[in-house]
Each structure stands twice: as structure tokens, then as C-alpha cells.
TrEMBL record:
Residues covered by the SUF system FeS cluster assembly SufBD core domain: 175-404
Family that this chain belongs to: Belongs to the iron-sulfur cluster assembly SufBD family.
SUF system FeS cluster assembly SufBD N-terminal domain segment(s): 9-167
Domain of life: Bacteria
Identification of the protein by name: Fe-S cluster assembly protein SufD
Gene that encodes the chain: sufD
Amino acid sequence: MALFEQTIDQHSDFLGTLRHRFLDEDRKTALEAFALKGFPTKKDEEYKYTNLKEITEKNYNFFPTEEHHISREQLDALHLGEENFDRIVFINGKLHKEFSKISIGNAEFLSFNYALNDPAHKEVFDKYFNTIANKDLAFTNLNSAYCKFGFFLRVPKNVVIEKPIHVFYLSQNQEENTFYNTRNLLIVEEGAKVEIIESHHNLDESFVLTNSVTEIFTFQNAKTDWHKLQNDNDTSYLVDHTFAKQERDSLTTVNTFTFGGKLVRNNLDFIHNGENINSFMNGITIIGKDQLVDHHTAVHHNTPNCESYQNYKGIYKDKSHGVFNGKVFVNKIAQKTNAYQQNNNILLDEGASIDTKPQLEIFADDVKCSHGCTVGQLNEDAMFYLRARGISKKEARALLLYAFANDAMQNIDIEPLKVKVSKLLAEKLEVSMEF
């Protein structure tokens, strides 16, 4: 039975496992919306270059086994040298406090499932949950129908969370292919600040499909940084939708570093709801073999005097395939908008490919908007320059590629994360960090 039929057949069983009844009707409505359209195919413009058949024709277990055999040493190996960070560890969908380190006492943190079960949070969920997630999308509806795993975090007014928070989603000890619908809700109130690192890890040989939806609300004068570190194995699929709504004078950054996973689809929507907003989106993708990574971004400039910056770099080896579709929408009242979008790519092998499509839709007349994309190979003159100075071909190649990708890391404020990304870059480029 393919995934579509499974989602319909297992929903009643899924509802029977839950205690948060106030969402039952919303879940049924979301499932009906999903069933009406089904999974997107290559006939859909948004999935024109991304074939999901490999994902959707497999069978999955919707009820992962909670038992695991993960050791502290295995978890430590995934860290960023982050002894002073807070960390939140989900294993097979369940929050494990014995592996977590949570010192954010001046903020409100709960597992998503617990928050749904707590009547005290019904008002908050009614106000924020599923209000900016696009209800026309198959995967967001599927997530709304089945979501259970993930976290809820509310940072109160003027509270600055000093330590970055690393959220781990681990899957292990699953005998069957497993399907996770992960949901995160982050509310950063006026004048508050928080930094999140998110990573997913499948530790089994069976396949894992993660359908993740995150809603971020950044209020006036607040700052939110969300870093996605995607370095999973070849038996993992990730479809991620992140929606970020910003109020006046706020700053939100989403960095996406993709080095692993069989198929990764990142969807990122920024929604401006006030003046003097700044939005930053940066991405680095380095993949090989037959991996596919698809970045779809959209910035909705709805108000005047706001800025957005998109900078995505891709390096593709072997028979890998990249997709970038970046959209900027400028409303007719959004005068004085400054929007920058750039996508640069290098193809290292003849079998590698990239489909890139930057888009601007501008209805205001006093704006500064630019977009561009490049697809090419390494600069032969630069290679010759380095080789003439005694640098081996392999090291010269790696130096140029490292420099090419490096500027997309410049706004990482977390030094251990910057070091980790640099090391992953070096690993993927097969070169020592000593250069």
C-alpha cells in the first residue's frame, strides 16, 4: 500500500492514540484537504523538477517504536562541541530529558504533544497554531492531520536566551520504514532573542520520511535565528516547510546547510507585517551520488521600508540534482523595499545538474530589487594560479570551492556551528582543514 492510501486508512487509528480532542475536527479537515489533491507530482509547477515517487511509493510505519538503544557517546558524536549549549533530544518522536539539557527557565518550553494536551495552552494554540502555514499545500495539510512530535517554545517579552538551543530529532531501532510528522511552534515576543539549531538523524538502515512544519512568530524588536544542519544518511527523506511571520523592527534569519539525505525539500516562507523588518536566508548545499536537494523560498513584502537577503550556494558532484526557486513578492504599498536574491552553483561532474529559477513580482514603484543566478565550473585561471604556486590540484580545487561557499556562512553568530559547518565543507570537499 502506497503512502497516500496509508495516510487515509491510518488516520482513525492515529486519532485514537491522542488525548488532545480540541484538534480532532481540524485534523479531519486537513486530511480531507490533503486527500482532495494528493501528493504533488511533476505536473505541479512547484514540483516540476522534483519527483517524489521514490518517497510516496514506499510503505511506512506511522507509529514508531519508542524503545531505542542510543548511547550518550552516540549522541555526543553528533554535537558541535556545544558543552555550553542547551539541547533538546527527541528519539523516535519522544522527548528524552535524560539526554537533554534545558536551562531556559525564563521561557516556556514544552514538547508539542504535551502542549497540545495542556488545556492552559488552548488559547495560545487557537491564536497561533496553523495560522501562517499554507493550507493549500499537501504536506502541510498532512502534517496538520498527523502532527504529534516536535516542540513549543515561547520566549517572553525582552527575554534574551543567551545559549543556543540545539534540537536533535533521532530515529533508531525501527524495523520498518518510518514516517514522522514533526511540528514546531516558536513565539518570540517583543524585544526577545533566541537561536535554534535543528538537525535530523536516521540511525537505521530502513528509510525515514520526516514531514516537518515550523511556524515562527517574531514580534516587534525581536530577533530569531534558526539554523538547519542537514547531514543525514542515504536512507532519509526530509520535506520541510518553515513559515516565519515578522512584526515591525524585527530580524529573522534562517540558514540551511545541506550535506546529506537522499531527498531533501526545503520550503521557506517569510511574511512581513510591519515596517523596518530584516529577513536573511542563506544556504549551502554540497551533495553527490544521486542525491536531490530542492530549495523553494518566498518573501512576502507586504509593508514599506523592509529588507530581505537571499544567498544560496550549491556544489553538485556525481549524478546529484539541485533545485532552487526563490520568489520575492512586493506589494504595491511596500515602497522603499530592498530585496536581494542570489543563487550560485558549481557542477563538478557531467552527470550533475541544477534547475534554478529566481523570481521577482513587484507591484511597487520605489524599490531596490535584484536577483541573479549562475551555473558553471571551476575557474581555470584561478586553478592555474594556485597550481603555479605549488598547490596540488586536489587542494587547489578544494580551496576554490571552500572560498565559493564560505560567504554564505558569514552571518552565523554561533562559533561552534561555524566550525562544524566548516569541517563538513572540508569533509565533503575531501580536503584537510589545514589549508
